[in-house]
Amino acid sequence: MLHKMLSRVAREFVYARGRPFADSEFGKFVRHDIAIEAKKQLIFLPFELKVKSSVGAGNWAAVPWLAFFDPIITETATRGFYVVYLINAQTEEIFLSLNQGTTEVYREFGAARGREVLRRRARDISERIPEFAKLFQSDAIDLGSDEPLPMGYQAGHSFGRRYHPDTIDEAAFFSDLQNILSAYEMLVGRGGTTPTDSMMEEAGTSEIEETRKYVLSRRIERARNVRRRVLELRGTRCEACELDPVTHFNFSGPLLTSPMDVHHSAPIGGMAEGESKRYKLPDDFLVLCPTCHRMIHKQQDPSDIEKLRETIKFRYKTKP
Predict the structure, then answer these.
(1) Is residue 213 assigned to a domain?
(2) Separation CA 73–CA 268 (nearest Å)
């Protein structure tokens, strides 16, 4: 069970860290076995998340961790926000945390200022999903290290739960995981850490629900895994005006750098808040040039590609 495996890491990490990192059986247990067990837990939950577990890359980390990532937001612990188990190997405490990527923030603001930014955003997260924040502990966490990354994790912690291997209740442990993953998906749907005024400016409306739907659609469209797959399956020709960057602009760059947009055409209004299964690839998407993409969002029905085609008074043509 996941709680027993994490308890083993909490108890044995200090000893394991004193031995060679290369080819460590303990390291393989954390990276492989724990990640597989965590994925099994998700089978019973309505979330589509990536899972990664780590004790370091090339050398032992100060803090071992197991993280759950929504690909719309991030697939790495260096940026965005995510759910993570963090372990203080000195006290053998396990922390479940709604947390944030430290590395990207440090790059932009530096370590000291970056931790201030992380703490402010952590408070913003709690305030954006208060119905979940009240279910958890909001006091600071101590990871037992003054290295930059653990200090960033401490600053980026919004709320969560503290466990000790000797006193973990299995049912409560699983319930906590389910609740914090629900909080995570709710946070994604409500705009994450983006300020409300910035979201409204992007969406072009002052209605909060419409703003959240628009921002969520845009996040889905821009997600790396979504964009790549849609372009692979639907091609790079605009499905409205037929602009083809290869034919009309001699574009020859990598697929992900194509000047075409991916448009999430499935209506988002009917989905329950916090719902994770938001789209089908590639059925719920269109490939559009930036102009057509902007125009379809001005329609009453942003999924009606035929209506958009009817309004276009020209077509791109290839010279004979």
Answers:
(1) no
(2) 17
